[in-house]
Amino acid sequence: MANKEALRELQGRLAERLQEARELEPTVGWLAVESAGYPFLLPLIEAGEIFQPGALVTVPHVLPWFLGVANLRGALTGVVDLAGFLGLRERVPQAVRDQARLVAFNPKLEINVALLVDRLAGLRNAEQLTPEAPQDPARPAFVGARYRDVAGRVWQELSLAVLARDERFLRIAGRE
């Protein structure tokens, strides 16, 4: 029970810091998340609210990474398992779902989608990270720069704005 309360407190603090970051001068900043053990950076300007996963309505005949539809603040929102979409896992383990979070896309991107991420890892800014050389020149357009933090961990930036227009991301029906 204490873990759930600590997670709620962390989520509340992150939401407050996210709002504060949006109100400050525009600077480069990211929401740091983890999915299937991989660290990702989502641009703050492209990220929306953070939600605790609730009831999902499953949708028939969709790809496995499209988990269903959730009611987030009165809006029907598609929920995508980030790790599943990226091919990092096939199914979300129940233990992960219990502590996962949904990161909605910023409403300005005009797409009702939220990414299921395994863990929130705080906020990052440009002063905390050192750019790394890209490893794969044939990466998808939504995969941005790589950064190393002071602990030596390499983070991969994902552009939600580009992802929102990616043909593969938008094609949820059928088989891969």
From TrEMBL:
Coiled coil: none annotated. It holds the Pfam family CheW. It comes from the Bacteria. PROSITE patterns: CHEW. InterPro entries: CheW-like_dom_sf, CheW-lke_dom. Transmembrane segments: none annotated. Residues 27-169 form the CheW-like domain. This is CheW-like domain-containing protein.
